[in-house]
Amino acid sequence: MEKKELRKSIKLNQGWRFTGPSGREEAVNLPHTWNAKDGQDGGNDYYRGTCHYRTEFAEPEFDREREVVYLEFRGVNATADVELNGQKVMHHDGGYSTFRKDITEFLEKENEIRVAVDNSVNDRVYPQKADFTFYGGIYRDVYLRIVPKDHFDLDYYGGEGVRITPRVKGKDAVVRVESCCKVPDARIKVTILDACGRTAAESEGADAEAVITNVHLWDGVKDPYMYTALVRLLKDGAAVDEVSVPFGVRTFSVDPKKGFFLNGRPYPLHGVSRHQDRKGIGNALTERQHEEDMEMIREIGANTIRLAHYQHDQYFYDLCDRYGMIVWAEIPYISEHMPNGRENTISQMKELIVQNYNHPSIVTWGISNEITISTKDKKDMMENHRELNDLCHSMDPGRPTTLACYAMCGPFNPVAHVTDLVSWNLYLGWYVPGLFLNDWWISFFHKVYPNRCLGFSEYGCEGMPNLHSSTPHRGDHTEEYQCIYHEFMLKCFERHPYMWSTHVWNMFDFAADARDQGGEPGMNHKGLVTFDRKIKKDSFYIYKAYWSDEPFVHLCGKRYVNRAESETTIKVYSNCREIELYQNGRLLEKKTGEKVFEFRVKLEAENEIRVVSGEYSDTMTVRKVAAPDPAYQLPKKKGKSANWV
Hints:
Structural class: mainly beta
Distance between the termini: 64 Å
CATH topology of the largest domain: TIM Barrel
């Protein structure tokens, strides 16, 4: 007998009408942003204001005696006012989280939704000042969700009404399943299923505990094993509602002298930060595009992702669970403290935790980022931080809090000592000269605060795949200097193994409307991959050489074709031990080493360069020219290396 589905979802992404700043109405499908182009071309002239969306839909089939209908938005940036059939049904401040409303009483045979979306400048909704574009729009999916009248709570900060907390005890795990519903005399039954769908444990109650014997741990990228909690709401012995929640069982800890531990063993966290936008489409990503991002992050061998600077799509958190990524999740409390925005930081933090509590990938809640850049009311800011820190601990005692400080914050600033963990956004060797300062700074902080867990939440430098030099230097935006920078940083972190995490800024280039650098305005080019995801810069491969077990060889400088020098350096990144270099079919040299291999080659007029290690090879062409190619140089009127502020 076929099982009856107790819940149904209808996606409302097709057939919307959009009215933008021009006043002209046009047809669009969701996800959609009106800043897909003007938010990526530089300056502050991209449109921030109110735009309007509307669509029509027929009343879905449902049983009014037994079911209700919710209207759910997965992400609208930044403020949404929702009307249904002329009645205001929802207001939401915050552009990155799910919000919903029971609309059953408003439904008619034919229905019209109108949404006023506002991303304009104000002093109460975060973010307002930051180094990324604040895309306006309904940029994630919209659903009608039909659920039983007697259902698990869907009205509390966008959550699903079920919260799962596993605790490891020896070889077993005690799984606490807390569920919330407003149904008197109801029974709640919990069934834990293993990855094969077999029953692993059972229990009953709104605050149930189920014991998994010989538990299979969620063990990072090597073995991200997931269980499923099937939680049923029973009346008169029959299930009237059901929620299926994937979860993982793991332990973790952080030691200021030994770093991060997963399931009782050292597990050094090395990874990337990620923004959610792409060239030409802004933040309106499809599931497949999220998957492509994850594929590239996995390719370099990262085991952690800082999902900056806001709540990301639920689908991406699911991918992190599935592939064993350790995640830093945070709210967009960034760059300046707004006294009128305190309530918004609290509501966004509640939504972040409630909606993401069950993800095993998440190990820390991020409270703020570079908040001291332009804060005037320091007392109010500190009170807000303490309130957020206490809120996180009360809502989730099992995860520590963290925040990201920027260089000028200073190691003695009280902001740096509010949370359980701390990380720094430092660009020593890029915005200021002296790569060696990274070692000095890390050692100094660790000496002064030996019991404080320290990480690097951002580090990086601009790298343009069209800019090249045989004598790269800080500020030139060349692909070659970006390589030098990251080679140094990887060695630096090896010298400080006590750091709890390091996150490259950034995995992908991203839009930053206020920037005008590198000859391409409106962009931050610190990514290891270009904004359109089409070019993996050479720096991508130095990380792959350090972190990935997949054998490969990569010739750097493929885009640096025209070279004026008689003798040039050929650089190879690889995780193989022995490398052979060929020029125009002749073996020039064989080297044994690790990660970075450099060869000096006397150039002929045309040079086919080939590198080989066993079955792995890579090829490029280099041409000897009479004078440096001006196309490889940063235009002099562009490219200041000053930060966006």
